[in-house]
Amino acid sequence: MNRQELSKKVIGIVNRVLQEKQYVSSIDILLGLGYLSPSILDDWRRGRFSYLEQRLQANLNKLSFAIQCFHQWAKQTGLLPRETAYVQKACSSTIHLKFSKSGQDTIERRYRTHYISPKLTQQKQQRLMEKVEKSTEPVVYIIVSESKCTQCKKDLPKGSFLMMDENNPYCMACTPYKDLVFLPAGDALITRRAKKYSDKSLIVVKFSRARKRYERQGLLVTDEALRRVQDHSMVASID
Question: Which key words tag this protein in UniProt (predicted)?
Fold first, then answer.
């Protein structure tokens, strides 16, 4: 694909996404061009690797040109720029996600800037940006190989639960979520109820070597929420 073709494709993506969502981002461009897959995006949003560019399927020259076209077209058509924070909640902190290896502010800002339709009212613009900036919830991993807790130095055998904070592993006892209990996946209704009843919950995933991706295994919920779900299920079975 030459530069003229790439430019036309970027413009097409901007127009399509804007019509669908009333805003468009660099992430939308990368997804639309096939440089980024949804699964890689999810891994990055959950902090599973350090910066996004390292997993994009495009060289830096083509990538830079595509993002440049995006910004130029957005400005030419009168879209409103809004800089957005990409953050991920870890077990004890909030991490600002990086797009580039260098982390230079000018590069990061180009990626973080969204463009909003000027047709939206100020109130709708505000609600939209709050939705966009919602941070990714922390995830619990069932590990497939041995590890060690960064804080207490406890050895963690395969099959243990752990959380990551700035690429450091922590056992559940060293996190604010140590009192949560595991609810395996399988019954969608029970899962929804448990999440509803629990004032805090975490998704539990495990890496599938066969499929080469993380797969959901269940939830960590409060003990009270689990008891309520179990009691509700017992009553339903009696009825």
Answer: Plasmid
Is residue 115 domain-shared with residue 154, that is, in the same domain? Answer: no
Cα separation, 17 vs 22, in Å, equals 7
Sign of CA dihedral 129, 44, 88, 104: negative
Number of domains, the chain:
2
Same domain, 151 and 228: yes
Nearest residue to 48 (alpha-carbon basis) of 98, 4, 110: 98
Strands 202-208 and 139-142: parallel
Q: Convert the pLDDT of each residue in 99-156 to its tens digit.
A: 999 999 999 999 999 999 999 888 888 888 887 777 677 889 999 999 999 999 999 9
Q: State phi, psi for 21 to the nearest 5 degrees.
A: -120, -10
Are 121 and 74 contacting, i.e. CB atoms less than 8 angstroms apart? no
**Element housing 184 (H / E):** strand 181-184
Residues 127, 153, single domain; the answer is: no
Look at the pTM and tell me if it is higher than 0.85.
Answer: no
Same-domain pairing of 128 and 13: yes
| Strands of 23-24's sheet in order across | 23-24, 113-116, 80-83
